[in-house]
Amino acid sequence: MQRITPATACGLFDIAATRRIEQAAAAALPPHTLMQRAGLAVARLAMALAPHARTIWIACGPGNNGGDGFEAAAQLRHRGFLPIVTFAGHENRLPPDASASLQRARDAGVIFAPEPPASCELAIDALLGIGSSRPPEKLMADWLRRMHAMAAPVLSVDVPSGLNADTGDSSATPHPGALSPRFCLTFLTLKPGLFTAQGRDAAGTVWFDDLGCSGTGEAPAARLAGAPADAPRSHASHKGSYGDVAVIGGASGMAGAALLAGSAALHAGAGRVFVGLLDASAAPVDLAQPELMMRDARSLDLSGMTAVCGCGGGADIRAVLPRVLATAAALVLDADALNAIAVDGALQTQLASRARRGRPTVITPHPLEAARLLNCTATDIQANRLVAARQLASRYGVVAVLKGSGTVIAEGDSTPPVLNLTGNARLATAGTGDVLAGMIGAALAAQRPPFEAAREAVWRHGHIADTWPAGAPPLTAGALARQAHC
Ligand SMILES: NC(=O)C1=CN([C@@H]2O[C@H](COP(=O)(O)OP(=O)(O)OC[C@H]3O[C@@H](n4cnc5c(N)ncnc54)[C@H](O)[C@@H]3O)[C@@H](O)[C@H]2O)[C@@H](O)CC1
Ligand SMILES: [K+]
């Protein structure tokens, strides 16, 4: 059993692949073995999470996920615990494995109750796993609501009930805000839906058990990003070794966004950083950051530079975009640049032509910006973030960074997208997106391949928030930018 952390780098498998892996594993083992292993693993984690629990409530559903719950109940009872099982199903319609486990729970003396206990020290959600086919209703929905209203930790078996294991969508399922601590023990494969959209909030800390069935010929649907390797600088390097970044943005009243991106690029290690402001009346120097070379946006020669375009650009960014798209050696497009491209077919054609000319581009939309670029709604984007990121990447010939809980980084169709696990709600403050754009710009300027540049910068950006000291003042975008080297 392994706890998944932001440093974990491994493949994620969709439901169809997981089913094939499960069938192959079950065929190679004596009957009922997988479910016994799954139940034992649940019982072990339950005992570790609540070693002194008097009451453990296990809510079991009508399929094999419920079977894992019965099996865990039997194992816990054998070890002296007093699990209380509530069963939302019909005994005579259970699949064979689950039916055998129900009998084992009865034989072990497990208590079956018609109603959940009023309180417990641990609740185990074994209602629905990868066989969930519609939002939980009536009894199941009621039990889930009660479970998440309790202060006790919740341990989800395989998948939080009602969560789509492929997409992380659980918009119709009662998984209310962060009340109780959440854990999820998932089997055989790690599923992408545990790590993006509503998946992270619903699952909490994820544990993985391969049930002794390691090794698979299946192709992953996505991968976890994992921590980037350190990149030591050679002694003989100089500022030219790390490239030039030009931030283009900062229309009237919005210079701060461009300065934040510039500061982030600087602290992330760019050799030189120019800030080309769209507001011609802006101050000629940033006294707090004199390293930033302030220019008029229209005067910069971008042919040897990485441009970071759009931060605080407002409507004025439209006028400079044709030249930026045509001339920037490498490019990060954010915010207002993305909004301008979304409504302009000529700019879209120009963007797509960059890939054919061998000029790398990374785009960093949040879900609403992504929706504008794909001509759909933010709800559509959130319903399948992996697919949306892939569509962005292939339609525009770019590396797409779809921001949000479980940021997705996608590149074309040949590479599986990557899901990033760093970051937290501290980043939900103005300017943090500008900082990310600047960090990606610095990595591109240092000649990192675009997919790697995006993956590494996204990981580091979130890691700063994850390691921000608990008692320290709130994380601001300026402070985030100053930590961009971490
Ligand atoms: N078969 C095996 O040997 C193993 C199965 N495993 C477990 O089995 C799970 C998959 O089992 P199943 O394929 O039986 O699927 P589930 O147990 O996830 O659920 C399928 C059942 O729930 C019903 N259902 C779906 N959505 C519902 C809803 N909203 N309201 C009410 N009923 C609903 C379906 O009609 C079906 O009866 C995995 O997630 C995992 O927990 C693991 O124990 C590994 C081994
Ligand atoms: K479950």
Can you walk me through this structure?
The structure is a single chain. With 486 residues, the protein is α/β, with parallel strands linked by helices. The protein folds into two domains: 2-221, Rossmann fold (3-Layer(aba) Sandwich), CATH 3.40.50; 239-482, Ribokinase (UDP-N-acetylmuramoyl-L-alanine:D-glutamate ligase), CATH 3.40.1190. It is 37% helix and 16% strand. The strands form two sheets. It has an eleven-stranded mixed sheet, with helices on both faces. Strand 8 (182-187), helix 6 and strand 9 (205-209) form a beta-alpha-beta unit. Helix 7 crosses helix 14 (432-445) and helix 14 packs across helix 15. The two termini are 30 Å apart. The mean pLDDT is 94. It catalyses: (6R)-NADPHX = (6S)-NADPHX; (6S)-NADPHX + ADP = AMP + phosphate + NADPH + H(+); (6R)-NADHX = (6S)-NADHX; (6S)-NADHX + ADP = AMP + phosphate + NADH + H(+).
